[in-house]
Amino acid sequence: MSGSGVGGKWMASSVKKKDITELREVGYLAKEIAHRLPAKGQIVPTPEPHERVVFLTHLFRGLGFPLHPYVRGLIFYYGLDFHDLAPNFILNITAFIVVCEGFLRIPPHFGLWLKIFNVKPKVVSGQQAECGGAMVGKMPNVTWPKGSFAEMVKGWQSGWFYITEPRDADWAAAPEFRSGTPMRLTSWQEKGLTLRPSDELTGLQTCVQNMIDRKIKLVNVIQVMLIRRVLPCQRGNCYLWEYDPAKHQMLLGLFGTTHEDIWKVLFKAGETPPPTTVDRWLSSKRQANSAWIEVAEGINCPALLPEDQEFPLLTKMLFPAPYEVREKTAKKAAKGAKKSPRRKGVLDVSSKDENPSSSADDDDEEEEKNDSPPKVGRKRRAVPMNPEAKAPKREKSSFADNSAWDVDSSPERPRRTKPQAAS
Q1: What is the C-alpha to C-alpha distance for residues 250 and 232, in angstroms, rounded to an integer?
Q2: What residue numbers bound the domain in which 394 lies?
Q3: Chain-wide mean pLDDT for the chain?
Q4: Is 320 domain-assigned?
Q5: Which segments of 272-311 does DSSP mark as H helices, in order?
């Protein structure tokens, strides 16, 4: 197997002992997380039992151990391992957790995730990538803060090493490591499943729209992670809305960069980071309004975990749906290879590239081009992910009234007014 890293292949690890030392000093790796460096020049990992293969780029984007239960659930639902996740996959999970916990004051909501994001194969030069073979992206016409992450990260496949993650006694063991392409499951294809009452999902989408109306963008969302020095994908001892810097700060600093420079790594050029003095999120000192807290306390839709009992819908989602590269994609890759035998690596991109090259665009192939929502017609009945779990009883007015979904009633938030009727 090639060690060049071009084409979604594994690369020989470049992680050194000094890197691990710094990770521990600033807090990315806790004392109880054991680690092991790969052999010099080793390309394909060979983890021991209970070891996981992790990447430096993933840690910088909010991954932490022990894992947040929500992240464990997503990986299980999509049948993925860490090496299957392109760096922005982790960054999108981080942003989602921050939005839910830091702005909406609810635990990460699996039903809302399924209404916003979907997973697709990463295809490079006509083949699905072996490292970073799964991408996550927004579906069209969804309500979500504006902003664009840097699309590619140069040589990220070389930043891998082993860790041994502490796990609870009742956790299901992680799947055995495999170095090939990820197996696509039915869960990749089924988009926009409705797992909770539609009024609850509509209400949460209203909350996100309220964020957008207040000019909260993705840079503001990621600012939460950077200012609070937390790893959102790590299981912590509090939710972000309970955050107290004196008790809950996880990191002493940023690995190998500064607060000013990390924006160039995470976002496309043109995205302006907010001032470090701007506080737009919830914390122990900045609570949501009391009316919303009452509503939020009854909202809970966690991602399913491997140790949870399966039922028919979950069994269907976990069924393999193997991916086959479209013939025209393979022909296009072959044609490009003939024209450019020394083709530039698709990973050699920085955040300054506002307009990626056409070759990079070709490499970011998606499994389906038509991601438009289904045509409006007879509504499909919502299917709860767990048929035995009942939604909490609530007054109908709490869902029908938009004001009940107003998380933040602080003076900085302009109230939306209904347009006057034409005379």
Answers
A1: 10
A2: 17-405
A3: 79
A4: yes
A5: 290-296
Q: Rounded CA gap, 199 and 164, in Å?
A: 42
Backbone angles phi, psi at 261, to 5 degrees: -80, -25
Predicted confidence (pLDDT) at residue 99 exceeds the cutoff of 60? yes
Least confident piece of the model among 181-185, 226-230, 418-422: 418-422
Number of domains composing the chain: 1
Whether the Cβ atoms of residue 402 and residue 199 lie closer than 8 Å to each other: no
Please provide the distance, in angstroms rounded to a whole number, between the alpha carbons at the two ends of the chain. Answer: 72
Question: What 3-state class would DSSP assign to 202?
Answer: helix
In a domain, 239, yes or no: yes
Residue 89's closest CA among 128, 55, 123, 136?
136
Type of residue found at 5: G
**pLDDT, tens only, 163-178:** 998 778 778 877 888 8
Of 94, 188, 91, the closest CA to residue 134 belongs to 188
Residues with Cβ within 8 Å of 283's Cβ and at least 6 positions away in sequence, in order, are 240, 241, 242, 243, 244
Who contacts 324 (Cβ-Cβ below 8 Å, separation ≥6)?
none
In this prediction the pTM is 0.81
Q: In the predicted model, what is the mean pLDDT of residues 369-387?
A: 36
Q: What is the pLDDT of residue 175?
A: 80
Hey, what amino acid is at 332?
A: K
Closest CA to 235 of 153, 305, 307, 314: 305
CA dihedral sign, ordered 221, 224, 230, 234: negative
How many CB atoms neighbour CB 40 within 10 A? 7
The alpha carbon torsion through 309, 312, 313, 315 (nearest 10 deg) reads 70
For residues 66 and 80, what is the distance between their CA atoms, to the nearest angstrom? Answer: 17
Predicted pLDDT of residue 400:
39
Three-class SS of residue 248?
A: helix
- The answer to the question of residue 7 being in a domain is no
The number of beta carbons lying within 10 Å of the beta carbon of residue 58 is 24
**pLDDT in the model for residue 217:** 95
pLDDT tens track for 177-217: 888 899 999 999 988 888 888 899 999 999 999 999 999 99
Rounded to 5°, the CA angle 263-269-270 comes to 100
Residue in this structure with the two tokens 């991109």, named with its chain if needed: 349
Three-class secondary structure of residue 313 per DSSP = helix
HEC per residue, 83-117: HHECHHHHHHHHHHHHHHHHHCCCCCCHHHHHHHE
Domain-located, residue 189: yes
